[in-house]
Amino acid sequence: MNPEIYILGSSSATPTRERHPSSQILKIGSEKIMIDCGEGTQSQLIRFGIRHTNVDYICISHLHGDHYFGLIGLISTMGLIGRKQDLHIIGPPPLKQIIDMQIIHGGMTLKFDIKFYPTNPARQEFILRNASFELSSFPLKHRIHCTGFLIKESKKERHLNMEAVQMYDIPMSFFKSIKRGEHFIAPDGRVIENALLTSDPEPCKSFAYCSDTIFDPEIVDYIKGVNTLYHESTYMKNNEERASLYFHSTAEQAATIARMAEVGHLIIGHFSSRYDQLEPLLEEAREVFPDTDLAEEGEKFEITAKKRMLIHS
Ligand SMILES: [Zn+2]
Ligand SMILES: [Zn+2]
Hints:
By secondary structure, the chain is α/β, with parallel strands linked by helices. Helices cover 24% and strands 27% of the residues.
């Protein structure tokens, strides 16, 4: 199954009647990753019927409140419902202290461990890998320590060609190593090349999340060729000066980054509360990068290797 992105929040600094601060859920392999957790994220999970019991990873891009003020509420709920499995939190170093302080002074008792992974705003860093995905962070230029995230499906096993396997009389106990790409060495010493026994797996899909950032072409190297890119788009072109003053981007600039990075699909979000209608932002971006969509709350996007599909749920 292809990875999917669920949009929970798409507003910038303040919520509006229609929009909540940033949060998304990426379903990838057997895992769910939450990316940013603005105020109201728990309510949005309930609203869209997404369970948090199996969210084991939460990535926080930076410590502006619209990206993490929902986090302690979610941790508290996880404690109240008796969560036991580890929660992995990835974010700027001070986040660890903030969480610890809230837990201690709130008298919270948790039956699960929080494993914390600090991000580095100075350079791209590998964070972790498991059977479903590998995760790294990369620097963004914002007013405070801020990183984006690059998440790729983990390397998949090669497909076994059952006809070939039977023809060469290969015992089942070797299937695992052959699927990993190893050759088969017969008892008589003959080497059966892996290419004769397997075919390529599905390509690994990738997703990049560019949270708050000024227009910064240096990002392109980190996100080159990803299947789906989320990039903030707080303002429209006629507010370009304001965008750079506050270290944000316009819809046109987000689309320019998508075009430069030759990504498959662009999702724009983090819209300023000044915009009631989002169509003009979409049009502005599509003039530069046609395969763009709005991060509208409740939308689900499938990440595909070829042309992406948009699913309205
Ligand atoms: Zn923000
Ligand atoms: Zn910010």
